[in-house]
Amino acid sequence: MSILQMRIFGDPILTTKAQTVTTFDADLARLTDDMFDTMYAAPGVGLAAPQVGVSKRLFTFDDGETSGVLANADITWHSEEKQLGEEGCLSLPGLYLPVERSMQVRVTAQTLDGEEAHLEGEGLLARIFQHEIDHTNGILFIDRLTPEYRREAMKALREVELGLRAAPAPKPTQAL
Ligand code: NI
Question: Is-contact 40 172, C-beta < 8 A?
Fold first, then answer.
């Protein structure tokens, strides 16, 4: 069990579509253990493998009620109803902006044993599923912002990069 190094915005692995998980073995279980350690240490409520430098379609999650790990997850249905809420990302430290997501989603995925799994998420869990599945497709939450918030995000990222502002402390319940 160990804490893995977090890849930060600018690392090309974060904008690359990850590889399908095809081998469900002890190495995958070990990676998952390390991802849980890394997610809880951050702290965060979700973590995708590309965020720790592994280009695999795999993520861990824990919304406080439900926790788990999913491989090769796809959204098969999303509600028309939306939710607007502040979202952050462990790979974009200090950046929290409102993102519109579907209120409910259904997901088809595989467990660590390679068994097919069907899950439904609502509210925060639905937000986590959408955020992490985006990660496995090389999409970041800043790609989901309105143009106005996206400008704000890019300005903040530039300022952090230039050292004009320090990255604020993480908000534990909202970083994914
Ligand atoms: Ni993220």
Answer: no
